[in-house]
Fold these 3 entries.
Entry 1:
Amino acid sequence: MSKGTLFDKVWDLHTINTLPSGQTQLFIGLHLIHEVTSPQAFSMLRDRGLKVLFPDRTIATVDHIVPTISQTRPFVDPMAEEMMQELEKNCKENNIRFYNIGSGGQGIVHVIAPEQGLTQPGMTIACGDSHTSTHGAFGAIAFGIGTSQVRDVLASQTLALAKLNVRKIEVNGTLPTGVYAKDVILHIIRTLGVTGGVGYAYEFAGTTFEQMSMEERMTVCNMAIEGGARCGYVNPDRVTYDYLKDRNFAPKGPEWDRAIDWWNSLRSNADAQYDDIVVFDAADIPPTVTWGITPGQGIGVNQTVPTPEELSDQDRALAQEAYSYMNLQPGQPIQGTAIDVCFIGSCTNGRISDLREAAKIAKGRFVAEGIKAFVVPGSEQVKQQAEAEGLNEIFEAAGFEWREPGCSMCLAMNPDKLVGNQISASSSNRNFKGRQGSASGRTLLMSPAMVAAAAITGQVTDVRALL
């Protein structure tokens, strides 16, 4: 087993007990909730006559079901409005801080917690959402959980979990021009597989991650779950502290200096033991696009869809399913694939730096005829900052729609959906069948800059040609 890693240290600090099952009863420092997985959990509490144990450790926002064109209440979708009202009621009854629409702090849960300074190194964080692994970018241990576990955290502020192995994933070197954090994680998942991380926490390390901004690190940790890992993290450093300083919930004054000393002590030891180590060279990572129906079915933008002969026996059956569903042929170049819809946003790539990179591609150009292209900021703060920088004007001048904050077409639990067998260039995190709202809709995952390039040309395009 691993020893001396940040994961081990944070796990041990939050361990309350070892349960008869052999699992650890783990204290959860921060609990994030939204409108989709919390209503049933609150109902379970009421059925048992229980209260929220530590309401000050739970933070709520609304993101999955909110429309991004008009957020006037009541929502047009009666189910969305009902879920919204339920969250408002539960937060009011339990004295839970709620970043509602119009508060200035609303947005995708994994965007707003970092920007408020709620996410900090050394924390254990849980949320009823798969991509809670995002918060590991700060040196936290963050888990996505199910509805019954949301109930458990509300009632006891603890979870029953089995301790994970730790795999160190090193990426070293400077990323080539036109290669982004999204390409890094897609390349890792492509190499290790969508089940390669099962039973593991991923520690992302190496000079490439040291050079990344916090928002880039969040993109990588966000998709650790897509590689099968339960969580992913980066050791905290000066980049982390510069991001957190002066944010709403960050320590202030003398507490700040003490916090940094403690956070530094949590970093993985130089002689830490890992259960596995995998090393990548940044120079080998190309702009990456998924061609199939899992995030692991990815290729470089200048490569071709793999043939069955190129794949392992265990991958061939899924590839055959993907060829049919995606209407792509083995050996076909992915570059040049026609696109119908281009979506920039999500908890993976809806932050200000993502929008800036996409705007560089859009500036002075125009969306290809027949392409629906839209940009969804990850939060009200991101929207406000983008508008202050004039990014919205760049996008709108180029023919993109500029929307209100929300999860949008990442999972289509709102009006933003693919229609029929439309094919989407998406900066989101999943390309599963039907993920974007149509049972036959098709999704190609890529970086925001690559999505912008696809919007301009109407097809999958190597973004380096437009830089």
Entry 2:
Amino acid sequence: MKKILLITCALLSSNSFALDLAKYPIELTSGDGVNVVIATTTDKKQALIKVTGINHEIDGITLLTDFKPHGSNNAYKYTYDGSERSLVSVDQGYSCCSYTLYIPDTRDGIYLAKKETPNPILVADLKAQYEQQKSKGLQAKLANFNREKHLSYQQGKITAANSEIEKQCGVKIQTDVDWKIIDDKILQKYAIGSFCAQVANEMASMCESDQSFKNDIAHINNIECQFTDQLKLRQNDTTLTFKTAPKAPNQRQFIDAYLRNL
């Protein structure tokens, strides 16, 4: 058994050394401090890429990417935060290529210009850096789904909605979600915070347009949100139980109609 494990580890650790890299890298720059080095394989199906000058956790980390279709173009793709992302897109165009860098968690791409005289020494440097960082688990850490980051972001949506009720209605109503039963796949796929904040947001909106509505919800203390496959809203004493479903249409209208009949 130990022998099998040792052989497996040896094979895994030798994967990147087996990469047949082209002699010359592709060097790119934004002109204002952002630089990218790409060392492609000779078959152009993969590449080692290092980005610097972006003040992000991928800055300085050499990533192993796959060259895949990306819309009407192609892109070097990798796994970040549990999902596949495009790092650098390549537009073939009429005069070969233009390149755009995509930083995780940002919307706009950064256009990159290609340097005319690439340095072949960078290929060996990139390969060595990749191996060193891989041995420390840096790429694996970036690839793993960051539950705490996503959870904090979604909880912020709930907190903001609760605050808006107090601001517009002058009452404190707490929206609660049992986050422990929300698994990583659901948290990664859906904006649960936004779904569950709908009742609070609708209450705030209704108070803003009609201050008398705050009297209709004065007896409500709590909104209990459940992420399910059905859309329901029920009152139990001072608690509203809201079951939200990602595929259910017209949720705002459904909530509005229910609240008007409290």
Entry 3:
Amino acid sequence: MKKVFSALAMAISLGLGAQAWAQTEKPTVVLVHGAFADASSWNGVVKILEKDGYPVVAAANPLRGVKSDGAAISALLTSIHTPVVLVGHSYGGNVITDAANDHSNVKALVYVSAFAPESGETVAELAGKFPGSTLGPTLAAPVPLAEGGKDLYIQQDKFHDQFAADVPAADAALMAATQRPVTEAALNEPSGSPAWKHIPSWYIYGDKDKNIPPQAMAFMAKRAASKAVEVVKGASHVVMVSHPGAVAHLIEQAAVVK
């Protein structure tokens, strides 16, 4: 009889332990990079989040089109069976706005120097809604694609000043050489139904961003009724590279809100 009670006590203990783990388990953070970047742009943020116990996936954004990119990230979300904090940088904000729909495990959206479009809006339209973007003149000659359309890059000698002015020159040069192109069509493709209308959002950006005018990001953050908006003084478009601590802190804020 003593063995029976011992076994029962152990089972209860294990059950309570599993229940406690389920209650305290941290959400998975899915990071989606934007145009002219790749998943390594999140490296500083990933180190902090993982140190703090968060599972992290830095996704490879195809940068081919809003709908198809959203479908790629949506497929990734389907494979994750925990709550998710979905984070997007720049054009990646457009992608997460689409991808989060129909995923009940996505509990929060975090926009990092990002687009948070309304239905039917395009990246190009939002970038030009307010004055301040100087991206256009820094783009290299479009690269024709075999299947039609064009790829866009930032000229390497203009990359540092335009995209990452507050990043050390050597690091910015490496980013320029490894940048991934976005299609011209993706920047002009209308967005679908915005997930920020039913999923709470957070927003962070730099006040020296030259790709997306800070005024445009303030407008989008307010429209999305973001729970917190942080403006990092002196930060460029790649605030997650130059200020990974601030970005990770905001993500962790979003992660703990029920």
